[in-house]
């Protein structure tokens, strides 16, 4: 369990992992593409950003606005990053799942 927020849900884990996979290129549309390509999960823009907002409020994710450019018509880009607490939460979830899977390798394949 994380220090203040309980266990991460499946979608929260997927969001954090996708952002970590993208590194410095973790922008909203890229996170959505990462979820679709690697997890087979399509998400709407609203679902994506509300999930990231929840993670930000929990202190597991942060974002910053990049400089506005003319190529986006003056619309700023938000780049996302997983916090140290976010990494801790992922590690805790991974340990819990590993412990629960122990002894079930033959059944789960």
User: What value does the Rg take, in angstroms?
Assistant: 16 Å
> Which outline best applies?
elongated
Q: Do you know the CATH topology?
A: Arc Repressor Mutant, subunit A
Relative helix content: 55-70%
Number of domains: 1
Q: β content, as a range?
A: 5-15%
Characterize the largest beta sheet: strand count, sense, and whether it forms a barrel: 2 strands, antiparallel
Return the average pLDDT rounded to an integer. Answer: 90
- Helix-strand sequence: HHHEEHH
- CATH class category: Mainly Alpha
Uncertain runs: none
Number of helices: 5
Spatial strand sequence of the major β-sheet = 1-2
Structure summary, number of beta strands: 2
Could you state the CATH homologous superfamily?
Winged helix-like DNA-binding domain superfamily/Winged helix DNA-binding domain
- CATH architectural group: Orthogonal Bundle
